[in-house]
Amino acid sequence: MASEEELFASVDALLNEEPQLPPPAERARLREAAGITQARLATALKTTTQSVKNWENGRSEPKPPRLDAYQRLLNGWAAKHPAPGAGSAAAPVPRAASSEPAASKVETAGAPQASAVAAAGPTRPAIRPAVPSRRPAARKAAQPAVDPRFPHGPLAVLDGDGSAYGTDGLVLDCPATTVPELVEWTLKESGLGAAKLNRYGKDSDPLIVLTAAAAVKLGLPEHLEGHEQRRSLRLPEDHPVVKQVTKAKWQLTQRGFGPWARIYRKAQGRERQCVQLAVLSWDALDERSWPGVSEMEPADIARVLGVYATRVITPRGSTAVSGLELMTALRPPTKAVRDEETGNWVSGYNAGSLGTEPMDPAPPEATPEHPVVVNSGWKGGFLNEEAYQWVRSVQTLSDEECTLPFAVGLDLNTAFLAAAARLVVGLSAPDRFHAPKFNPKIPGSWLADLSHIELDPRLPSPFTPDGTRPTGPAWYQTHTLAYAQELGHDIHPIEAYLRRETGAYLDPWHDRLKNAYVDTLADLGVTKDLTDVEFLAAMEQHKQNDPALAAVLAAIKATVKGGVGKLRERPQGKSYKEGETWPALSRPTWRPDIRAAVISKARVNMHRKLNNMVKMTGLYPLAVLSDCVVYPSLGESPLDFLPYAASGKPQPGGFRLGPTPGLAKLEGVQSMLWAVDLMEKGLNPARHIKGGDAVLDEGE
């Protein structure tokens, strides 16, 4: 029989054990029952919102002393909000861990949902836990989706063992061993997909991401082999998998079977039959847009893509492709209208959209190889509305500037996205006008001579991408001429191509991407309510807080630039000859005039801030590269030279720190000697201020 000392020792050991928390799903239920948000709970426990999310989905556990405080809070909530079916006098959450295996808990959590779906529609695949070695922390099963047609979220990552990892930690069993079987399973059993973003739009097709092991299991090569396959980025038409797809009466789009493959049949009534595949080992997730994602575990890849799909759109290709397709998803080209003669509902034009047919640009808006230019023999010049690439002449530096110790780079958050806000663009075909009166409210392209305008050599010209003074008549987008007028100069256009029908086409695109950007930054601990000092500190570590969400943020930024770049996609391939059409010209979203409007407004916004900085601080920039500007500074922080009022608030009109589009963040710090050395060599300090080989990337 055990002695008293042994019994007391055993009891003391139990008392000294860390408190055991209820299952993650119960933690979330208790918080929601108490009416407390994750952000408010994070504030109370002196942690981040993302940490609370991780606790509630089983990705991580709190550590003492936060663990004890969290346990006490959950006990209190459990007493007030007992689980459905529990007795009226609820006991505190027990400290002892359940003896039930973790795997059984996940299956139990998924069982009610699975049975509910089975009663409502087609049989769904079994939901099972992840293999421990593939995912270190247990995660809760997916909660029922808002749309009952897609209970398992927008996408899944398929591994070689048949595990299909969905969002929120869901894992499905996929029995498919061929691509046609995978397509059938996805459409009939998986419960994957996403509802349309606009009432007149279409549902998003389900996305299946294939790991290298899954690709091999389905008969695909782990890598595209051979020069021809790498060059064309697709399987040859005689590949066995392509033949399987064709034999099963499925079709591939003109892109063929490449890193992003769409497999479809013609829609039956309102039901679309299309599945999107992405092959990770074929570089479907480009490292520049999705940093580190392709090397993550399948469950983490599903999390990254799932957050992006929820906040932006289910990926349909590169981030550039997704950015362009988001425009159409939010502004569908058609809607159902009633035919007054027959009374039937027919497809009609959706006001504010770009319609269903491609539109020829005005010759100065096109590219030199465009059929409109080549076939007409146009020699009248082209729009040159591009982002800044300007370096100040070393000869204009003062002795005082040269003695300052630091060069500090500021980067504007998603400058192109900020420029898209309330941007009025043309919706109809361009009409030509001779000697028109300038109207800053009409979008279009204007031929005007701005070479007479005197410019400060210490600032870039607002009228040219390289910041040099115009030398004669040139084509400008409306915003560029409007800014010249704002600066007090008379504008007398020689001719113009203008559009009579206009609208803020990009507004919903801007709003969705802005919310995605701001929300993702907030999840990383960078919120709107931070002071400038706190903001700079949060930005220093935000990527380390959660690498998965940091990858989502990078993808959102790439979606903005890539989407704008796709509006003027150039021909690709050595076989192309000038004057021929190329695939991008067949879509209504090939609109170089809209791209020019966005970039023109972004460049004007940058110059306005540069000009206001001179007025408020007397400081002139050293260089500008797209949305990055470098200033000489007495200290290593932007706080050492940004303008603030006596109250401590930032002065409006100049550069301001913050997490929203159009506000600035620290890009990098180097010595002034380093910056001057680059300038003397003709190099741009803004390109290298971050300390790496950052390059201008407009997504083209």
Short overview:
This protein has 700 residues and is an alpha+beta fold. The chain has 22 helices and 20 strands. It is globular.
Report the structural category. Answer: alpha+beta
Helix percent band: 25-40%
What order do the strands of the largest sheet run in, or round the barrel if closed?
Answer: 3-2-1-4-7-6-5
Low-confidence stretches: 87-122, 129-145, 694-700
Radius of gyration: 29 Å
**Strand percent estimate:** 5-15%
End-to-end separation? 79 Å
The general outline is globular
Secondary structure tally, helices: 22
Q: What is the arithmetic mean of pLDDT? A: 87
What's the count of strands?
20
Main beta sheet, described? 7 strands, mixed
Write the layout of secondary structure elements.
Layout: H1 4-16, H2 24-33, H3 38-44, H4 49-57, H5 66-80, H6 102-120, E1 155-158, E2 163-165, E3 171-173, H7 179-188, E4 207-210, H8 212-217, H9 227-232, H10 240-247, E5 251-252, E6 260-268, E7 271-279, H11 298-311, H12 319-330, E8 334-338, E9 345-349, H13 371-376, E10 389-391, H14 399-402, E11 406-412, H15 415-420, E12 425-426, E13 430-434, E14 444-449, E15 473-477, H16 478-486, E16 495-499, E17 502-503, H17 507-523, H18 532-545, H19 547-566, H20 592-617, E18 623-625, E19 628-633, E20 664-671, H21 672-680, H22 685-688
Parallel strand pairs: 1-4, 4-7
Antiparallel strand pairs: 1-2, 2-3, 5-6, 6-7, 8-9, 10-18, 11-19, 11-20, 12-17, 13-16, 14-15, 14-16, 18-19
